[in-house]
Specification:
about 350 residues, about 40% helix, Aminoglycoside 3'-phosphotransferase, Chain: A, domain 2, two-stranded antiparallel sheet, Phosphorylase Kinase, domain 1, globular, 12 helices, alpha+beta
């Protein structure tokens, strides 16, 4: 992430209305809690991130940090759990999973209005369009392979060695997830959405047998990765809010959702309509086969269910984004635009599930 408007990097601009921080209170807290911090601090806000407002901090010594906090306003149950983000990233330091260095967690909401954490700033490329228009044809398959390696590394994490054996319930993961995201959708919706209701019912009735639980990211997609500035490798996986112990195939399918979304400029970009071979982007089958090789599997049954579930979950998330945007508490200026995607996502999920 960078404040400079380089291609492929999000731009940190002025703090948006409703997301202002108490600068004096933040400076007092960081001066006593963050080693090396030198006030005053310059505060900018990243546009990326639809759930938890994210800021770039630059202190008087030129050091840069990233601050993530819960959004203002009344929050949906079990949402915006930045404490879990902090815990898992801290636990993953020293593993094969690339994560930013965590610096501190503040659970005292009186400091700036909500709990927050601070992590190191990672300088690199965030590539928001899965068609990767800003890189060469030769580099595209290498970047997708790096993405594949990153998601596989998450699923290979030794839970005992990292202290994450209690990071989530493992029994009936898929059934619980379908129920959870149905509840989130129902809590956020402002009107009935027929394809969402249809897809929720189908998922409830077609839950496959469970896989052995692993660490899962929960929101693994290309624009939640920081790539090296010049090399085709992932140097940080971001946005761990939805991480838990669960079914790794749900993570894998989620990472493939771009193959089901339209390739057009907008808040959610995909690859439908793109000539993958001409661009050098692997097909979904090739991406899944690479994952199978990396994880020692022989096959992945019921993949359509996992894709349909991923689309349903994204639809539930964007419906929540729409609801917060209507209330003026959304963490991104494009929240209302993303909210318009709910029906498209649900209809696509219905097609994948052959409803």
């Amino acid at each position: 992430m960078s404040t400079r408007p380089n291609p492929g990097s999000p731009f940190a601009g002025p703090v948006r209305a409703g997301h202002e921080l108490d600068q004096a209170a933040l400076e007092r807290y960081l001066a006593g809690a963050l080693a090396g911090f030198v006030p005053p601090v310059e505060i900018r806000q990243f546009e990326g991130g639809q759930s938890n407002p994210t800021y770039l901090l630059r202190d008087a010594a030129g050091r840069e940090y990233v601050l993530r906090k819960k959004p203002p306003g009344v929050l949906l149950p079990s949402a915006h759990l930045i404490e879990r983000e902090y815990r898992v990233m801290t636990a993953l330091r020293g593993t094969d999973v690339p994560v930013p260095e965590t610096r501190l967690l503040c659970e005292d909401a009186t400091v700036i209005g909500t709990p927050f954490y601070v992590m190191a700033h990672v300088e690199g490329r965030i590539l928001r369009d899965p068609a990767l228009p800003e890189v060469t044809r030769e580099e595209r398959p290498l970047l997708y392979d790096a993405m594949n390696a990153a998601v596989a590394s998450i699923h290979r994490v030794d839970l005992a060695a990292t202290g994450l054996t209690d990071y989530g319930k493992t029994a009936n993961y898929l059934a619980r997830q379908v129920a959870r995201w149905t509840q989130q959708y129902l809590a956020a919706r402002a009107r009935p959405i027929a394809p969402m209701d249809r897809l929720s019912s189908w998922l409830t009735e077609h839950v496959p047998a469970e896989e052995p639980a692993t660490l899962t990211h929960g929101d693994f997609r290309i624009d939640n990765l920081v790539f090296h500035p010049t090399e085709p490798r992932v140097i940080a996986v971001l946005d761990w809010e939805l991480s838990t112990l669960g079914n790794p195939l749900a993570d894998l399918a989620y990472s493939c959702l771009a193959y089901y979304l339209p390739a057009k400029r907008g808040p959610l970009r995909g690859l439908v309509g793109v000539d993958l071979e001409a661009l050098g982007i692997p097909s979904q089958d090739a991406f899944v086969e690479a994952y199978i090789r990396r994880t020692g599997r022989t096959a992945i049954p019921d993949f359509n269910f996992y894709v349909a579930f991923g689309l349903f979950r994204v639809a539930s998330i964007v419906e929540g984004v729409r609801a917060r945007a209507e209330k003026g508490t959304g963490s991104s200026a494009s929240g209302s635009d993303i909210g318009k995607m709910t029906e498209l996502l649900a209809e696509t999920g219905c097609r994948v599930g052959l409803l």
